[in-house]
Amino acid sequence: MRQTALITGATSGIGQASARKLAEAGFRIIITARRKDLLDRFADELRKNNHEVLTLVFDVRDRESCRKAIEGLPEEWKTIDLLVNNAGLALGLEPEYQGDFNDWDTMIDTNIKGLLNMTRFVVPGMVERDHGHIINIGSVAGDAAYAGGNVYCATKAAVKTITDGLRIDLADTSVRVTNIKPGLVETDFSRVRFHGDEDRADNVYKGIKPLCGDDIADVVVYAAKAPAHVQIAEVLVLATHQGSGSVICRKN
Description:
Blueprint lengths: L3 E4 L5 H12 L3 E6 L2 H13 L4 E5 L5 H9 L10 E4 L15 H29 L2 E6 L12 H20 L5 E8 L6 H5 L4 H6 L9 H13 L8 E4 L15
Parallel strand pairs: 1-2, 1-4, 2-3, 4-5, 5-6, 6-7
């Protein structure tokens, strides 16, 4: 039987690209998101290309929904070989002392607690089978704070530490753990961050050719398809004219 991959936040950006590329690489795909309409539309696309796909509609922030989704999987889908913890977001770019409490809660609950929820409900099965792989989508923002990034950067720093801790906890098993840290990627990320302000979002990518979702998905597939004895622990992926989370050389 083909291996099964579960990808959270799979209706756009890196999550959608990763699901598509993993399907093309031979995985059966479980895709999750909050919006059923978008999820069904993407599932239809995958099925038209003869890929095997299952959809799960829930919010990773809701621990009970996560539990029910994983425990309620059809028997033939219960063995998850690859978990891609992709669901995440940034909100706002205000100084920390002017930050929005609701934005903070959403980022912390999604980027940290959501990742932990999925890990807690999926990884025990991998340990029991002594086989599996967790790929967490982190960020260059987790390496160092940048102006206005404060809480978002902190959540991605947490992703790095949580990923490293999980890798240590699983070192006596055959389960692999990977942290992929993208830099500037042109997806819906900035539109979400600026609460739908298209002009402000577009300015983020002016003067530089950013990465796209497919670029990160290629790294996801590379890590997932590495030989069983090879663990791609961490990958930092930047646009050519990006030096760090805060250094971007924009060309006219």
